[in-house]
Design a protein that fits this description.
The structure is a homotetramer.
Chain A (H helix, E strand, L loop, with lengths): L39 H19 L6 H8 L3 H7 L3 H20 L11 H15 L4 H12 L4 H28 L13 H17 L7 H12 L7
Helix pairs in contact in A: 1-2, 1-4, 1-6, 2-3, 4-7, 5-7, 5-9, 6-8, 8-9
Chain B binds a DNA duplex through α3.
DNA sequence: TATGAATGAGTGTTCATTCAT
DNA sequence: TATGAATGAACACTCATTCAT
């Protein structure tokens, strides 16, 4: 139970879970064994997947559609059969990446069996550490943070479709914890951002400084929860 | 006392604190002094300032040196008298922006007069809210987050010169709080990131969603501190 | 028989012998076929031809790819579909211009039917005067002389592929003449350059001073051969 | 006696005969020990000398005035105090390089003491081999050949001031030889170019292929004279 | 005169976008 | 639909030339 990730964690259908072993964008672009992804739908999906790789690795402006096409095993012109232009591909791609997540977010998992809020949050943290940190999903989050300012439309969409729901869910979870007496600071319900904050920070940290000073994400999130639940005190 | 901002808050000498009212990058470029009488140093500073505006607004790849030059009131070629190329300008610019900060970071303000850790942190939070949020400094932080992945060198520099010092300072502050019995969870000393995390989050939040859902940063940071100091509990 | 020009003299296939009336590089660029129906090979050939015109007229550094493109009836970017960069175009162009020549050089025409060495050399000289002097081929030779120093790679190539063969052929011809008793100075076989020298000189002379003092190339080469064959003496 | 080089061989006054050991233009540019060449005239001379180095090494278009200035130990702007523009410097420079030569050319050395024409020509050839081949003078000749087409004005000047005189001198020498019965082919008097041709060829050859196949210039010129004087025959 | 910082037109190269096949 | 050659606007960077000192 208690799964409630900010980012969808289920394997993308049809693509065997590139989660752990994804292709970095700085390799010459693997020929994509997939024998030319016939159906139009597969082609489109291939373009989106390839775009995700490239955009997350290089950012919007520095990504070349040529590379995307190559990586997708498709001709450059084909991209324009599916997307109006580079920006359309980019936005569509973020939407696609977030799609499954939106469904999930709408069904908060709390109060199902009377479990503790702490347990729910721990599960959330653990899932996050396992299914986001070090995966392509982290790249997506980083990308949204990076490009969001330049694409207000995108930020809006992200806010409406993901953040708003997520915040609402978090708040419910917090209120649940308050109601059960687990959380003693009622002010937390006003700022659910404080609950997710450390997760965002870990994503950024690992992306920028992971090489130098990798973070023990799980441990850190545990301390974080201890603070919230007023536990972990010495003595 | 007890000032400890992540980003330098003193007005840049000679430039009347463009802090609050900075020029958005989409205006045709402000008239600028433009008198030929300005010295080489001022010219260089103007380029750096213009670059800061443009890079933070558009990102590295999308920034045109032509625009930087125009904004700096300088010919395009002039940029190359001061910087080897676009990337050199970018890196130098980050360094310059962080320069004063580094000095500040190296002098942690604790233990001066036996003040409480809470007070120190509150001052820090308040300074942050006032001098970073809504400021060009927030843009810089966002920019580092955005471009850091594409400029490992830069991320390294940032880590070495700023983050490492900042983390060390935070840890000292936390240990001080623990020693004084203010903070009861000793685990926090292992993850000073948890202390700064919410600040980073507010920067990102305001940048991306500020228009839709502005955050009461001060209030949020207060709750954050309450969690850390185990206060704010109902009843 | 007895044709042995330093430069290929056969009309380039598909292009009706721009030999005598070639377009000077300072005309706005001839209308050119320009129909989009031309195949990739023709396009490439057009670029090479245009490049030849421009490079020979202006030299490597002063040639603008913009002009080459215009003259070829092609967009600037198209050049880059065929050549890595300006230098690659230049080198390829020299190679192409010399290509047919290399084949010819490899098949010396002597000893075929026991003809005299003098006859062979006369034919060579006549062909040279007719098919090189005043021709685009002369431009190529001049260009190699001009740019060779700046492109050691190119000079190497030219030496290996053309000069070495040419020198060897000349030497054979000379030795043939010596064996037949036509040439009495055996030392000439050590310096075949002396045989070709005057031809090179005429190319340079006509290029530099032709306007002022045109040279009767045929007559001069005849005297040259008289010297070699120890003829032409008064009385 | 019998000195009659196409190119002046006397050391340039005030400059200690950089003949053999000249500075190649691809070195970082020697600081020029000369303590800043004070007098205006020295400055101008320094610029001309530096220009000669650079232009011969890189050609007109590829030479940067910045490099010339650096090599001359002068500020870039100073060049414009002495020369209208890059082209003016270039032309002036060629004139200067040829200046002393013109004087010499006007005083043909033949018939002085009734020496043989062969002796005169041998002396000429020897001087050429010693004082031109492998020296900066060869560079100048090569440069004129290279850039002449692009600078008709320059070629005109060169023709008028040097070539015309030289050709006339050669013709006189040839006629002298004919009159003395040394040269039996009177046709040679119509094409004095045939006399100088091999020298030009050696300059070009050494410049382009000298690395691969250095030429024994002296030996070659001897054979050349043997041909002209109808000597060197076997038996 | 001499300087060298400043200029800005010019050029090689890239890459999103189009379109004939 | 799919292709990929072709396009041409855009941009980083250079360098001859100017000019305030």
């Amino acid at each position: 139970m208690a799964k409630f990730p900010l980012i969808d964690t289920r394997p993308v259908k049809g693509k065997p879970a590139r989660t752990k072993a994804r292709a970095p964008a700085d390799r010459p672009a693997p020929p994509r064994p997939s024998k030319r992804a016939v159906g139009a739908t597969e082609r489109r999906a291939a373009i989106v997947a390839a775009g995700l790789d490239e955009f997350t690795a290089k950012g919007f402006a520095a990504t070349r559609l040529d590379d995307v096409a190559k990586r997708a095993g498709v001709a450059k012109g084909t991209i324009y059969l599916h997307f109006k232009d580079k920006e359309a591909l980019f936005q569509e791609l973020v939407r696609t990446a977030l799609g499954p997540l939106i469904v999930r977010i709408s069904n908060p998992p709390i109060g199902v069996g009377g479990g503790s809020a702490r347990a729910a949050m721990e599960a959330l943290a653990e899932t996050f550490a396992r299914e986001v940190i070090g995966t392509r999903r982290a790249d997506i989050v980083r990308m949204i943070i990076s490009e969001g300012t330049r694409f207000p439309q995108l930020a809006d969409f992200y806010y409406r479709e993901v953040i708003a729901h997520g915040i609402a869910g978090m708040r419910k979870l917090i209120q649940y914890g308050i109601a059960r007496g687990e959380i003693r600071n009622p002010g937390l319900a006003d700022f659910p951002q404080l609950l997710v904050g450390p997760m965002i920070v870990t994503v950024i940290w690992q992306g920028l400084f992971g090489k130098h000073a990798p973070l023990d994400v799980a441990a850190m999130l545990r301390v974080h929860l201890d603070l919230i639940f007023d536990e972990g005190r010495a003595t």
